[in-house]
Amino acid sequence: MTRLSLAIPSKGRLKEKSEAWLASAGFPVTQIGGERGYQAEIEGLGDVEMRLLSAREIAQGLVDGSLHAGVTGEDLLHDLAPTGESDFEVLKRLGFGGADVIVAVPQAWVDVDTMSDLEAAGAAFRKAHHRRLRVATKYMRLTRRFFAARSVGEYRLVESAGATEAAPTTGSADVIVDITSTGATLKANGLKILSDGLILKSEAVFAASPGAVWSPEAKASLEVLFAGAAIKGKEILEKI
Ligand SMILES: Nc1ncnc2c1ncn2[C@@H]1O[C@H](COP(=O)(O)OP(=O)(O)OP(=O)(O)O)[C@@H](O)[C@H]1O
Ligand SMILES: O=P(O)(O)OC[C@H]1O[C@H](OP(=O)(O)OP(=O)(O)O)[C@H](O)[C@@H]1O
């Protein structure tokens, strides 16, 4: 992988603003093959590989080194990074796609307002029902790290593929960890955020992969992007 491999979201809430950010920096992106095409071209960076992928695939590519750089959600980077923040390098926070990853419980749990309340409730629940509280989430690593850091162990994870907020109502879980912007979905599903249940304030970021194989050509293209996008800190280029 010699030339720079770059990716932005192929759809969803981050796509348009990612394209607008690159265009405003002087690097317009053109999708090839129409709206459903997943190849693209980017002007102004010379010979680079431009790809359109899901936000989750971009985060995975940055963490495993199969992509040099890209735009994705910070929540996904933190969740997919095996060892935490050293697996990726945030080059610029982009100011859009803001959302919070939080811990939420049913509003009816009036005595559970903090993570320590949740641990106590989990211990009581296991004693009474001989099973652990189920936490539904698509953020498996983020949840494990956050709960462990707060000595909360009386739970087990249930991986969610979507509509996580419905899990307590449908009975497939008791607690959730999910992402929220306006709070409307949480409210619609009778859920409340724990007072110390904010796991991560996330936004869209332009990030690079320290684990990727960086040729001089790839670094040179990234330097051009740094200049156009007014990304400070060329020392970052030494770190990747
Ligand atoms: N209300 C929100 N719900 C979900 N993601 C949000 C929200 N607000 C901002 N985001 C950001 O957008 C990212 C997901 O974007 P999008 O849904 O377009 O991608 P995706 O590939 O469909 O991801 P997923 O399939 O995990 O939802 C999240 O990881 C987060 O960083
Ligand atoms: O706090 P809110 O504004 O209610 O947003 C939070 C919801 O938005 C997302 O769902 P959505 O259906 O938008 O996208 P998805 O396909 O990623 O689930 C996310 O999965 C939450 O369910």
From TrEMBL:
<dbReference type="InterPro" id="IPR013820">
    <property type="entry name" value="ATP_PRibTrfase_cat"/>
</dbReference>
<dbReference type="InterPro" id="IPR018198">
    <property type="entry name" value="ATP_PRibTrfase_CS"/>
</dbReference>
<dbReference type="GO" id="GO:0000105">
    <property type="term" value="P:L-histidine biosynthetic process"/>
</dbReference>
<dbReference type="InterPro" id="IPR001348">
    <property type="entry name" value="ATP_PRibTrfase_HisG"/>
</dbReference>
<comment type="pathway">
    <text>Amino-acid biosynthesis; L-histidine biosynthesis; L-histidine from 5-phospho-alpha-D-ribose 1-diphosphate: step 1/9.</text>
</comment>
<keyword id="KW-0028">Amino-acid biosynthesis</keyword>
<dbReference type="GO" id="GO:0003879">
    <property type="term" value="F:ATP phosphoribosyltransferase activity"/>
</dbReference>
<keyword id="KW-0328">Glycosyltransferase</keyword>
<keyword id="KW-0808">Transferase</keyword>
<protein>
    <recommendedName>
        <fullName>ATP phosphoribosyltransferase</fullName>
        <ecNumber>2.4.2.17</ecNumber>
    </recommendedName>
</protein>
<dbReference type="Pfam" id="PF01634">
    <property type="entry name" value="HisG"/>
</dbReference>
<dbReference type="GO" id="GO:0005737">
    <property type="term" value="C:cytoplasm"/>
</dbReference>
<comment type="function">
    <text>Catalyzes the condensation of ATP and 5-phosphoribose 1-diphosphate to form N'-(5'-phosphoribosyl)-ATP (PR-ATP). Has a crucial role in the pathway because the rate of histidine biosynthesis seems to be controlled primarily by regulation of HisG enzymatic activity.</text>
</comment>
<feature type="domain" description="ATP phosphoribosyltransferase catalytic">
    <location>
        <begin position="55"/>
        <end position="213"/>
    </location>
</feature>
<keyword id="KW-0368">Histidine biosynthesis</keyword>
